[in-house]
Task: inverse folding
């Protein structure tokens, strides 16, 4: 599994395109709960 280490106090803003099966949606939804910000998931 890959990981990103972020140092500093800058907010992260961006777009991530993920390809995968419909079974990948559940962990993605769970990950959005950890962000504490606004999340938009499309194409589900």
Result:
């Amino acid at each position: 599994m890959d990981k990103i280490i972020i140092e500093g106090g800058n907010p992260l803003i961006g777009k991530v395109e993920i390809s995968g099966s419909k079974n990948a949606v559940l962990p993605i939804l769970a990950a959005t709960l950890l962000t504490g910000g606004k999340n938009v998931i499309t194409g589900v």
In short: The chain has a mean pLDDT of 80. The two ends are 23 Å apart (CA to CA). The first helix runs from residue 25 to 35.
